[in-house]
Design a protein that fits this description.
Elements lengths: L5 E6 L3 H11 L4 E7 L3 H10 L6 E3 L2 H5 L6 E4 L6 H10 L3 E4 L7 H14 L3 E3 L7 H11 L8 E7 L9 H4 L2 H4 L2 H17 L3 E9 L13 E8 L4 E7 L10 E5 L2 E4 L2 E4 L8 E2 L15 H14 L7 H20 L3 E2 L5
Parallel strand pairs: 1-2, 1-4, 2-3, 4-5, 5-6, 7-10
Antiparallel strand pairs: 7-11, 8-9, 8-15, 9-10, 11-12, 12-13, 13-14
Helix pairs in contact: 1-10, 4-5, 5-11, 9-11
The structure holds nicotinamide-adenine-dinucleotide.
Length: 343
């Protein structure tokens, strides 16, 4: 255990960067010391906005990485930039927080993995939904054997991302956003895999866009997939980034002794007439201010201090990316696809 102070450097000055700055600033022993942007004036403005007393603005990645006392790099740029920035940070010996998705394709993902392994740095992938109260409870119910071994699981991400979000302008482009699962549905897929406790072996996926493509996506903003798990379980995951409704993250896990539905539990372990509802935090908002970054980033800092692996490090999150690449291939080919990868 170490009480070392950690200097934090943020790459990107958009919406999510603000949430990371606020979260790290509230963690004992952490201070944001550097902010990097394509334009220095944006980094200067971000530093002023968050009243960061000791942070320096950069517009050049290699100078940013040489900032004295920089220990942790947080990657908050659009998706296609994550691999090159993560590889540069790893080569500079920095621990890395990487916004999802780590990479839009398998080749880039493996390049990041190789660089991180070679450098021996610690990583945290932003699948922060795992730290929301309802999901933490669900994991505990399953670990405590209250529903038995899951045989079916379903989780979805329904969040209309339109011009009312800054990221929409770049995220609608195919080469920037990837697809509906890579850009945002990955939260539902990661949650499902995490709770089912099993890798996915096969996927069959379909996508579409609504008539007239009102939000102008260059890819199909709606996707649904059937999943087969290595455990023998089956399930499905869906995502829509063009839906027009309040944010929804429906979850259902069924086992032979009970079921979990959002923040509700039904179990044969107790004499029940109805679901038990657990009042807790819910995945019910797309606003980064409501995201469970404090849970994720406190876990990351505690892992660095104790030398233990974070539960969401890159090695642990490789599989969810492999499943998404298999989904993309299934949509392209119309075939059921076997998921690749042994990491
Ligand atoms: N984990 C989560 O729940 C969550 C929530 C929101 C966003 N994100 C992720 O964070 C990342 C950033 O998203 P955001 O909402 O902060 O986006 P944003 O548009 O608000 O900010 C993007 C930042 O990247 C910079 N940038 C660098 N090159 C760019 C380019 N070519 N085009 C546009 N911007 C460029 C922008 O200047 C800006 O500072 C994405 O990978 C996104 O998936 C994750």
């Amino acid at each position: 255990m170490t009480d070392k102070k950690f200097g934090i450097g943020i790459i990107g000055t958009g919406w999510v960067a603000g949430a990371h700055i606020d979260t790290f600033s509230a963690i004992n022993g952490c201070e944001v010391v550097a902010v990097s942007s394509r334009e220095k004036k944006k980094a200067v403005a971000k530093i002023a906005h968050h009243k960061l007393k000791n942070a320096v603005a950069y517009d050049d990645l290699s100078s940013f990485l040489q900032h004295p006392d920089l220990d942790i790099v947080v990657i908050c740029t659009p998706h296609p930039f994550h691999p090159s920035e993560a590889i540069a940070a790893a080569r500079a010996g920095k621990h890395i927080v990487i916004e999802k998705p780590v990479a839009l394709n398998r080749k880039d993902l493996l390049a990041v993995y190789e660089a991180v392994q070679k450098a021996g740095v610690t990583t945290s992938i932003c699948f922060e939904v795992r730290w929301i109260g309802a999901i933490r409870n669900a994991k505990k119910f399953i670990t405590q054997d209250l529903i038995g071994k899951p045989f079916f699981g379903s989780c979805s991400y329904f969040h209309g991302i339109g011009p009312w979000y800054g990221q929409w302008a770049w995220n609608i482009k195919k080469e920037m956003g990837g697809d509906a699962m890579l850009t945002a549905g990955c939260h539902a897929l990661d949650t499902l895999i995490w709770l089912m406790g099993s890798r996915v072996s096969e996927v069959a996926s379909f996508g579409n866009v609504s008539e007239g493509n009102p939000l102008q996506y260059e890819y199909e903003p709606n996707i649904t997939s059937i999943l087969k798990f290595e455990s023998g379980a089956i399930g499905n995951v869906s995502a829509s980034v063009e839906c027009r409704q309040p944010y929804e993250f429906p979850l259902l896990i069924q086992g032979p002794k009970g079921s979990i539905k959002g923040n509700q539990l039904s179990t044969l372990e107790y004499d029940l007439k109805d679901w038990i509802t657990f009042p807790t935090s819910m995945p019910d908002s797309g606003d980064v201010a409501d995201h469970s970054y404090p849970g994720q980033l406190n876990h990351f800092v505690a892992s660095l201090r104790s030398g233990k692996r974070p539960i969401n490090d890159l090695a642990a999150c490789m599989h969810v990316h492999e499943v998404m690449y298999a989904m993309a291939e299934s949509m392209k080919t119309g075939q059921v696809i076997r998921v690749k990868g042994d990491i």
